[in-house]
Every structure is written in structure tokens, then in C-alpha cells.
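Is this the right way to post C-alpha cells for a design question? Let me know if I should format differently. Anyway, here goes:
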């Protein structure tokens, strides 16, 4: 089964978080951080789908999606690879852009650049991301791959980590056919942590939004704020990212 048509952005989202429970629905200036992310993606011409779970705790996300007119899909809580596959199959998405819901300051222009490069290549075996060789801050991550690749991973992945994290089966080239391409920038901003996983991350994001209006800035401008205010990086610079 191959869908040659629609590009779709699938954001995986759930309320469960061991280090910061219900993190994506925490409010900054009276607005859930998840809403900041979705608003920053609204400039893209491609549809956005929220892939959440059937866990009753995630009804909050379903209610949020419905009240804000966002398309959503409910699937497996632990097998996120299956959730992505079933979501892409249901909505007939031919090119999948994978994003996680803990990136409230994600930059739509960077994602758009990645999508353009992926579509120009016209190769269903291409895997394009900005995550394997990092030059962008953590918190503006994306991965792009074809439905064909996603289906092959879904049908052949056996390791728990491959199912939990969606794309390792693809970027480890377990099919033997994957072509890896990384979107990189000249300057290295990878030391900046703009993701949401801990109380320290929440503190930094709150300051950036409340004091510096970071939700209105592009990623270069946000990085300039970080560079001009070195103390900001100290807030969460010691946090170790969970390993896939």
C-alpha cells in the first residue's frame, strides 16, 4: 500500500510524562504550551494531525483537539510505531512529517525547508531529519519519511525500542534501502535546550515566552536571545535527554 499524495504532519501527544506530568497542557500566560506549538505550525500549508492514545487520561487531548478543530487519531499508547502507521493509513498520508508535542517553540519555516527538500528528491527511501546530526536546538526536531518506509517498519520491527520511538528501524537502515539526509545549518545551536520535559525546561520556556515573546520569534531570533543572555542556558543546560 503506497500513498503518493498528501503530506501530513503527525504530532504524537499524550498526557503521561514521568518527569513533568501533563506537560503539554501546562499553561504559560493562560495558554497551554501545546497550543503555542500548533499555532506556530499553522503557517504551513500541510494538514496537522494529533496522534494520541486510547488511554482514558488522554481524553484531555481529544477534547482539546475537538474544541480547537484539530484532526486527531487515537491508537496504542506504547507502540507508537503502530499509532503512526494507523494514523497515516486512516488519513491516507503519503509523506509523514513526525513531530513530538514537547516542542512549543518549533519553527515552521525549518520544517517547510525539510519538506521541500524531501519532495524535490522524489525518493520514497529517503529519510530526512535534523535530529541525527544536530545543529539546531533541541526542541525544533522533525523527521520526514514515506508511508512506504513507515509500513515496512511497522510490518518488520520486532524490538520494543523500534516500536516505542517510531523511526529507529528506518534510520538504522534495517531495511537496507534507506538513504539518510540531514538538514543542517552553518552555526551550531545544538547546545540550546528548548524542549519540554522537566520543571527546568518549563521555567526556561516560560521566561522566553513571557519576557522575550519567543512565541512570536523565529528560531534564529530565539537563539539570539539565548546567546545574548547566557544565564538562560544555565536553567536547564544540565538536563540529560532521555535516550531513544
Amino acid at each position: 500500500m503506497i500513498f503518493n499524495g498528501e503530506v501530513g504532519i503527525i504530532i504524537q501527544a499524550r498526557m503521561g510524562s514521568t518527569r513533568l506530568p501533563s506537560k503539554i497542557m501546562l499553561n504559560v500566560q493562560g495558554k497551554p504550551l501545546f497550543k503555542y506549538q500548533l499555532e506556530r505550525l499553522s503557517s504551513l500549508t500541510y494538514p496537522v494531525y494529533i496522534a494520541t492514545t486510547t488511554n482514558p487520561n488522554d481524553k484531555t487531548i481529544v477534547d482539546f483537539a475537538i474544541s480547537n478543530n484539530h484532526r486527531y487519531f487515537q491508537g496504542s499508547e506504547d507502540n507508537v510505531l503502530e499509532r503512526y502507521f494507523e494514523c497515516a493509513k486512516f488519513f491516507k498520508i503519503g509523506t509523514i512529517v513526525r513531530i513530538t508535542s514537547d516542542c512549543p517553540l518549533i519553527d515552521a519555516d525549518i520544517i517547510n525547508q525539510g519538506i521541500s527538500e524531501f519532495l524535490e528528491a522524489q525518493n520514497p527511501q529517503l529519510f530526512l531529519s535534523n535530529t541525527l546530526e544536530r545543529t539546531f536546538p533541541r526542541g525544533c526536531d522533525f523527521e520526514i519519511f514515506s508511508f512506504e518506509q513507515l509500513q515496512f517498519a511497522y510490518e518488520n520491527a520486532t524490538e520494543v525500542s523500534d516500536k516505542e520511538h517510531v523511526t529507529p528501524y528506518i534510520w538504522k537502515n534495517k531495511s537496507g534501502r534507506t538513504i539518510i539526509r540531514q538538514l543542517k545549518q552553518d552555526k551550531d545551536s545544538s547546545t540550546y535546550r528548548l524542549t519540554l520535559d522537566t520543571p527546568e525546561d518549563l521555567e526556561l520556556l516560560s521566561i522566553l515566552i513571557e519576557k522575550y515573546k519567543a512565541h512570536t520569534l523565529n528560531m534564529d531570533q530565539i537563539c539570539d536571545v539565548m546567546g545574548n543572555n547566557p544565564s538562560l542556558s544555565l536553567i536547564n543546560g544540565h538536563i540529560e535527554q532521555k535516550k531513544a
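Format looks fine. Someone answered above. Worth noting: The radius of gyration is 17 Å. The chain has a mean pLDDT of 95.
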